[in-house]
């Protein structure tokens, strides 16, 4: 196709350069969050190599050891498995599920939001009604129903989280795109005969990338939380595969005798989720995406 | 007004229809579908299964089953629980009180605390308090509700022994104070997330109102500060919060589900989890519909409430 005159080419995605990066770096909480996430990720993916036990090794003589007994830094669980080892490999699963679910749901939300906002009219009404319907019942109900009836492998849990949490992104993108599609550069692109997909993908999308990034970051936080919820209730990641949520699954019955079983994974979840929320907050300031709540 | 009513009613019906289609599809996606509960029974032959399927009308195409279910639902027959054959509406009704009590108390706590923190934060913008409230809200939003519940049980029931660790009342003692003491922990745990959300929105709303002309006028008239805050700022800042209350309903219902599980609270959330365990499809479907209907009604009431509270808003 003939080249479309596009003065924005050079500045496209300029969002990642210059003052915005510096503004983000100055956001103290966001930096703390970023460092925590880097630390957690490194710990979860490299930590297992440093520990003497793997996450499935059962030592029945060392059941319910409290933290700091011998080489069990964080103690052991009811089967005598090392909690530190389980925490790390659970983190691999929980972080991967959270991150992948974010990518998927952001993709779904962006496509639906861009299409609804760009075309408007009936496609907007129809798509936004579906968004409303998904938002109007507690997503945890739908997730649990899906998880209870489908085979709950990590992949399936990721898909379930993704298909039940794309609505916020869709809403934000739709509102942003609606503002963009009446702008001059969109009209100009339309006038030179650019196809719809080109205008949506190359003209409008770069201009709404800021809010999408912010929403995506917050979606990781929510996805990690959701995985924890369904796994805690017993419908998520299934043992012996550990996840931060299912490590808490039967912690309640040992709350009296072995409170570390509940405290350790909960702290990990809270740290990860808080960090992603802090990063999202910093990005919101830096990218000036006030519309994202 | 009539236009608004018909418009919103139609919108609500469409919404509930879409929800019911999603729910019905999901449940029928299940391997084996509603029949799976019988398939486990020893000595059950394929012929028996087919006969049961035929009796229950499960051998018909899904759209036909859906229409049948829909007609029944509209006429008030939500099916029978697989567990004890009692009508779904009765089962839901039996568990509703406990959930409404928990949600109501917790919402009252969240609104009171959230309003206070939000208004103070806005009045003392960029102060240490404001900063701590903002960061605190973000952390509160990140703590898993069930884990916060576990930690609360650990400290207040097991370590200190101040509060009961679960249930709604002590068997044999169903006095008001007994209910109240059982209600404290779960309602505060459930309120945490909503205090965070409410205080942040309230802060933004208060900041909006503080810039309005009528606040400046009130200040120019020389009204005392407490009167400006209470009569002019807070009252107007609360108006958009009514909409928020409607929108937060699904979050509260979802939170109630987890809180009820941790605190063995005999409400709809526990019922839902139990029903999942029993593959009790009619009850699961009923609860999905019930929460959707509750949300639609909640949002509708919120819109009417905003219009009543703010004479500038005309519904139309």
Note poorly predicted spans of chain A. none
Distance between the amino and carboxyl termini of chain A: 40 Å
Shape of chain B: globular
Structural class of chain A: mainly alpha
- The counted number of beta strands of chain B is 0
Q: Provide the succession of SSEs of chain A.
A: HHHHHHHHHHHH
Major β-sheet profile of chain B: none
Radius of gyration of chain B: 24 Å
First-last Cα distance of chain B: 6 Å
Proportion in β-strands of chain A: under 5%
Written description of the protein model:
The radius of gyration of chain A is 22 Å and the shape is elongated. The longest helix of chain A has about 35 residues, at about 85-120. Helix content of chain A is about 65%, strand content about 0%. Chain A is mainly alpha-helical. Chain B is mainly alpha-helical and about 325 residues long. Chain B is about 75% helix and about 0% strand. Chain B has 13 helices and no strands. Chain B has helices at about 1-30, 35-40, 45-55, 60-75, 90-125, 130-140, 145-160, 175-210, 215-220, 225-245, 250-260, 270-275, 280-310. In chain B, α10 (about 225-245) runs antiparallel to α13. The longest helix of chain B has about 35 residues, at about 90-125. The interface of A and B includes residues 130 and 139 of A.
Keywords:
heterodimer, A: 293 residues, 12 helices, elongated, B: mainly alpha, 76% helix
């Amino acid at each position: 196709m003939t080249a479309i005159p596009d003065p924005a080419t050079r500045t496209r995605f300029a969002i990642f350069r210059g003052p915005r990066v510096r503004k983000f770096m100055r956001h103290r909480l966001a930096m703390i969050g970023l460092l925590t996430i880097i630390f957690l990720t490194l710990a979860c993916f490299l930590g297992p190599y440093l520990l003497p036990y793997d996450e499935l090794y059962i030592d029945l003589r060392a059941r319910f050891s409290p933290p700091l007994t011998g080489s069990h830094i964080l103690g052991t669980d009811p089967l005598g498995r090392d909690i530190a080892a389980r925490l790390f490999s659970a983190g691999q699963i929980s972080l991967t599920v959270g991150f992948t679910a974010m990518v998927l749901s952001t993709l779904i939300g962006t496509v639906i939001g861009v299409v609804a906002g760009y075309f408007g009219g009936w496609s907007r009404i129809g798509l936004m009604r579906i968004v409303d319907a998904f938002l109007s019942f507690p997503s945890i109900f739908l997730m649990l129903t899906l998880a209870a009836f489908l085979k709950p492998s990590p992949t399936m849990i990721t898909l379930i989280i993704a298909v039940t949490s794309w609505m916020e992104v869709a809403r934000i993108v739709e509102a942003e795109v609606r503002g963009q599609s009446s702008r001059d550069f969109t009209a100009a692109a339309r006038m030179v005969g650019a196809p719809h997909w080109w205008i949506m993908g190359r003209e409008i999308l770069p201009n709404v990338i800021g809010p999408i990034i912010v929403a995506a970051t917050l979606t990781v936080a929510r996805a990690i939380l959701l995985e924890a919820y369904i796994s805690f209730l017993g419908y998520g990641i299934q043992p012996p595969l550990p996840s931060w949520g299912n490590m808490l699954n039967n912690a309640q019955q040992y709350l009296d005798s072995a409170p570390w079983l509940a405290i350790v994974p909960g702290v990990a979840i809270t740290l990860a989720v808080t960090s992603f929320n802090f990063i999202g907050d910093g990005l919101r300031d830096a990218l000036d995406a006030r519309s994202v709540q | 007004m009539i236009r608004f009513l018909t418009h919103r009613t139609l919108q609500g019906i469409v919404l509930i229809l879409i929800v019911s289609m999603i729910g019905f599809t999901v449940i029928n996606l299940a391997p084996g579908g509603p029949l799976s509960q019988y398939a486990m029974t020893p000595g059950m032959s394929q012929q028996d299964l087919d006969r049961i399927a035929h009796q229950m009308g499960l051998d018909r195409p899904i759209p036909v089953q859906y229409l049948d279910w829909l007609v029944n639902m509209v006429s008030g027959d939500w099916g029978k629980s697989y567990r004890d054959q009692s009508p779904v509406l009765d089962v839901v009704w039996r568990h509703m009180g406990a959930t409404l009590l928990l949600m109501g108390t917790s919402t009252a706590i969240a609104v009171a605390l959230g309003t206070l923190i939000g208004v103070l934060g806005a009045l003392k913008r960029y102060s240490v308090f404001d900063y701590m409230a903002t960061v605190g809200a973000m952390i509160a939003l990140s703590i898993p509700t069930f884990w916060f519940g576990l930690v609360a049980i650990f400290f207040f029931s097991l370590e200190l022994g101040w509060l009961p660790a679960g249930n709604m009342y002590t068997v044999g003692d169903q006095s008001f104070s007994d209910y109240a003491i059982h209600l404290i922990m779960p309602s505060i745990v459930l309120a945490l997330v909503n205090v965070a959300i409410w205080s942040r929105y309230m802060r933004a709303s208060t900041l909006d109102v503080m810039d309005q002309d009528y606040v400046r006028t009130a200040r120019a008239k020389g009204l005392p500060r407490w009167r400006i805050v209470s009569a002019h700022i807070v009252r107007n800042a609360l108006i958009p919060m009514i909409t928020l209350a409607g929108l937060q309903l699904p979050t509260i219902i979802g939170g109630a589900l987890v809180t009820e599980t941790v605190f063995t609270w005999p409400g709809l959330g526990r019922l839902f989890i139990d029903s999942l365990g029993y593959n009790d499809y009619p009850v699961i479907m009923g609860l999905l519909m019930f929460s959707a209907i509750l949300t639609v009604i909640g949002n509708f009431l919120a819109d009417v409430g905003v219009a009543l509270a703010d004479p500038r808003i005309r519904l139309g």
